[in-house]
Amino acid sequence: MTKFKIRFLVVLLFSLLHTGNAQIKKTGVPFITNYSPKSYKAASENWDVLQDSKGMMFFANHFGILQFDGVRWNIVTQPENKSMVRSLAIDAKDKIYVGAQGDFGYAVQLPNGQYKYTSLVKLLPTANRNFGDVLHTVIRNKEVVFFSKEGLFVYKDNKIKVIRPASTFDEFFEVNKAIYVSDNVKGLLKFNGNVLEPLPNSKQFIGLKIKKIFETKNGLVVLTQKDGLFVYKNNQLKNFVTEADYLLKQNQISTGALLSDGYFGIGTRQSGLVVLDSEGKLIQHINKQMGLQHDYVTNLKTDKEGNLWVTLKEGISLIQISSPLSKILDASNSETKIYCSQIYENKLYIATDNGLFWLDWNAYKNGKRENVHFQHISGMSENVWNIGIFGGSLLAFEKNGIFEIKGTSTKLLAKIDGAWQGVIVPNRPDLLLVGGYTGLYLLKKINGSWVYQNKIKGFEESSRVMVTDNDAVWIAHGYKGIFKIKLNKNFDAVWSTEFYNRENGFPSSLFLNTFQIDDQILFGTTKGVYKRDKKSNKMIPDAVFAKYLGMDSHIRLLKEDNQNNIWYVSGENTGKISRKKTGHFDVEELPFRKLRYLYIPGFENIQTTATGDVFFGTQEGLIHYNNTKGKSYQTKYKSIIAEVKCISPKDSLLFSSRYDVLPTNSEGDDTLFPVLAYSNNALHFSFASLYYDEADATKYEYWLEGFEPKWSDWSLQTEKEYTNLPENSYVFHVRAKNIYDVVSEEAVFRFEISPPWYRTSWAYLLYILLFCGLLYAIVRYQKNLAEREKAQLILNQEKELLRNRAELNEQKLALEQQNTVIMRENLEATITLKNVKVASNTVNLIHLNEILLSIKELISEIKKEKEAAISFSLLTKINRIIDHELQGDQHWNEFEEIFNQLHDNFMQRLKNSFPELTPRDMRLCAYLRMNFNTKEIAPLLGISVRGVEDTRYRIRKKLQLSSDANITEFILNF
């Protein structure tokens, strides 16, 4: 960095030349923030604007007074007759005086945030209450003047003085605490105390339709609606010729404001805002094509930061005229994404993703913008990555190759597969090395023109970031590392290649860049700036940049200009490093905070010129910077708590400026310290900061004292909710940090959560009484319990005695039951034995009967034999004895007795039910009861099987059974 010493005097001289008061930039269009009626949710028309001591903005809107805190819009109050608000003024105590349609009064803010409007019309005599729009409201000394075309209303000491015009007033002006009124009959009048006095030659003002008057060292500058500007000096009115005369006369002046350095801000009805200097030169013309949302300007006011608020027929715009940054726009507002820019032969060229464009830079810079547009250069319609001046020629590096730009035309030098950029080979100004998509290419200057030579052999990597020194070519690859390449003597091939990545000392192999600063090769990494240590051939942090840029940011760009400055993009920040006389460096970042998040990632570009112009290529177009614009970045501002509401059990507001949401409190209350029931222990806080420059980027931190131990982290959050807060006294703190890292004054809201009823003092007294009662009850209970235990003991003993007796009875009963079981078992055994005996007798009987039948049959056969030796009479006698045995009842009687015992007196029940049954029938039924079949029954009855069947048939009839009934089942179930 040896060049710093050489360039120091140049920088010092340059800085001295540009010190002084802030000026409105002439180059480019200031940053504009537009607020549409959809965003502020009120009427489209706005007529006036003011700022209170805290920094809150207020606007005169058709629906009432519109408030803006940087985050939220609210209608805070309305006139009593609900008419539109036309004018506003504010005193040192933030009392807002309001001029409306047919009404005027004032509004004050109550402790709960509400604004209370009080009409002053009731102080007027009835005859003076008929008037139209109160177009202007001004505070002068201890009086307030309300102006309508029907009269002046001077309010002082709760009284109103009315000054009527001879015919009608036309317009009203406050000029350095002096008040002027234009009268359609008398001309221009000056208000002195209680009367209106005509100026000398005042009638020369009649019919001019004056819209604004400025006091300057050259006299009064008078702005008229259609006739341009005039100067009133030495009692004479003369034309004030400006560079914008045609523009102002054609588009009609509507309002005006005196800006810093004596500049005139002039609003028009049809062409937006015009800014002139005190000499009448055009500084700015900002209309709808340049970013203003409407061309009809109704009023202009500057705030504490030097920003210009423009109220429009439709919407509100904030123009940051105090910023040293501006956008290079033309009437067509064309190309946005800018990869590179270059001024060459008084033309501004921009490389975009849609080709290359040019603009007449001298004409644009001198304010002649109406017919100045970015024009497309034919032949280049795709991504142009870079443009640069090499050997006096302007070259462009595009997706399709390398081009030379001559004025507004192009010439293809080499059609290659994509070109990124070019660098002059050290000590060979006639050779140009071009980095391409797939390697390196060589161009040579021959007879004043660049001619393509060859592709460099031996290297095929993408070479988008490339610098050279006397030793080699350094190429940064986005996700691989750094290549150091040396070419052979013929410059047609790579002689040697060295590669550096994380293994060689870099904190990472990703997102590496290489830059040349003061003839030294430096490297941008994700952890600061590195350089190569020649002894160890390792990459080490650079001590100077580590001190000023740190080691935690991603260095995306370093670029040296010819004014001893080093421009950088580090992380999200853009800055400038310049050398001090002491040898140290100044680091300046604040003016460039607006550039955060605007760069095209990976294609950050800064272009500087010898005249101090600096261009930043961004996603939102080309941005211009010139350090002649002095802006204060350390302005103090306030945070506010916009709204506090309980969200449980239902939303209920505690503090808010929103119109008609809270009951009005007494104006005597100077604090708001709500004590909330425990059921309302969930609160929602909304907050904002009264700083309007890049308000969306403002960060906040908050702290609920009494609940949280410390402040929260910074965030973009503008709301915070707390639920289930325990009973306690709390203080909610909030503060903001703007894009310039200035921390606001904090805002606080104090409140208290009452304990639930069961944790109040009365509840605790009740708990003590209940505790005493409980102790008494416990003692009483213990005593009763002892008595009950004693009685229970006696009872238990009696129960034990009874239980023992019961057990003895149970044992006795068990013995009886056991004896019963034994007797039943014996009885069953006896029955079983008898069953066996019956069965045995029956079997014996069957057997005997079968033998007897067999003998009887044999005897019958013998009787048939005539030759038998035994006499017939003897056989007859044997046969009669057998019959007697077969028909004997002895065995049957025994059988019947046992059978009745076993079968529940079956025979007797059957006989009683069916008396017509014969003894033979009864015997057959008994055998059926025993489930004998026909063959078994036949010998028992001494008849044949056929006889058994016949008997069964007769019995069926006697039993009156149907033909399909089973006689056996009937007998078994009887």
From TrEMBL:
Keyword Electron transport: no
Stored Gene3D superfamilies: Immunoglobulins, Winged helix-like DNA-binding domain superfamily/Winged helix DNA-binding domain, YVTN repeat-like/Quinoprotein amine dehydrogenase
Domain HTH luxR-type, first and last residues per copy: 914-971
Domain of life of the native organism: Bacteria
Transmembrane segments: 761-779
UniProt entry keywords in alphabetical sequence: Coiled coil, Membrane, Signal, Transmembrane, Transmembrane helix
Residues forming coiled coils: 791-868
Record-linked SMART domains: HTH_LUXR
Keyword Signal listed: yes
Signal peptide bounds: 1-24
Pfam families with a match to the protein in the record: Y_Y_Y
Record's protein name: Triple tyrosine motif-containing protein
Organismal lineage: Bacteria, Pseudomonadati, Bacteroidota, Flavobacteriia, Flavobacteriales
